[in-house]
Fold this protein.
Amino acid sequence: MRVIVTRPELAARRTARRLESLGHTALLLPLAEPVHDPLAVERSFGWPHATIAVTSAEAVRAMQLLGRALSPHLDTTLFSVGSATSNAAIDAGFRNVVTSDGGGRELGYAISDRFTTHGRPSAPLIYIAGEPRSSSFEERLAALGIRHLTVCGYRMKAVSHHRDHLHSLLVEGRVDAVLFYSRETAERFFSLPVFADNRQILERSIFLCLSPNIANAVPGEYANSTVVATTPNEDCLLDLL
């Protein structure tokens, strides 16, 4: 299958290697790129806090940009969504990583369970977040009465592509499947100007989404061709191919 990968380029290249090992042809179309803010992360580490939470590997990369200044924080308990983000945290040197399957809501419950078992710390949790982001994790923390401070560690900046490149990739070549990892990326994809006069090229494509929230960004005309991963991780997403 010819599979469009819409992730940021660094992550997309890893996904491409996985797809090719499965016998697919990966076509990279990054529609956003991260702009990290390690200074904001460093300032936040000066606040009183007991634990750290991340919901994206990009947040871990923002911390890694601190270099040696990150070392004093590597024993802090870090809560993470999914194996990919947890592995990134472990590779960065964090020694106490607690992983939750699912999304932000599930991570909130996992943190609550951990605090119930081991005691709730007096200092708040620092959530190193991105922009844009879903509010589900912060809403769940608030509902569970878990004190937290949010810092924006990175922002996703839109990536533009020349119309000729888009035409070559999407119109001249067959599109069997498109992988969506964020709602914003799905919205950008369907807003690409190349589709204005070539909407029919997607009629035989399938759209594979990491979560229901992302799937809601797919236009209704493609509802029957949209599939959501059973669990929001890449393993389950690629199982849909």
